[in-house]
Amino acid sequence: MFSHVLASTADMTKQITIITFHMSGITGCETLLWILIADFMWYCMINLLLFGLSHSAARLLLQLHQSAAARVTRSHLDQIPNMELQPLQAQVLKERQ
This protein's superkingdom (predicted)? Predict the structure, then answer.
């Protein structure tokens, strides 16, 4: 509010006043950009770190699931024999009879 009052009472016919207001505006914009760029870079770095961790955790969980599924499948297949006759075996048995 104070800067608005100051700007409205300033003598805008003088060149130094115009230069001063423009320079302060440019400095303010640059400062705001540097703050926003720094925040954006932190946001990107944190998201990149989280993405890397979640990607690694997902790959680890997938490998654990696949190895557990392979163990369970192999152990059950070793214990349960296949009692169904395959087409070739059925044909051989018919020919013998």
Answer: Eukaryota
